[in-house]
Design a protein that fits this description.
Residues 11-45 form a coiled coil. By secondary structure, the protein is mainly alpha-helical. The chain has one helix at 3-46.
């Protein structure tokens, strides 16, 4: 495999890693939002 092909494959792998991290970040953000909403509901119920 040529050096150009190796570099291309490395770049594609890094793009895939980035995409996977963005998906994970979206899931974590959704979890944080759900926890924040639940916490806010608890605070409202205490008043």
């Amino acid at each position: 495999m040529s050096e150009k092909n190796i570099l291309y494959r490395m770049i594609e792998n890094k793009k895939a890693e980035r995409d996977n991290l963005l998906v994970s970040l979206d899931r974590i953000t959704a979890e944080i939002n759900a926890l924040t909403n639940a916490y806010n509901k608890l605070l409202k119920n205490e008043q």
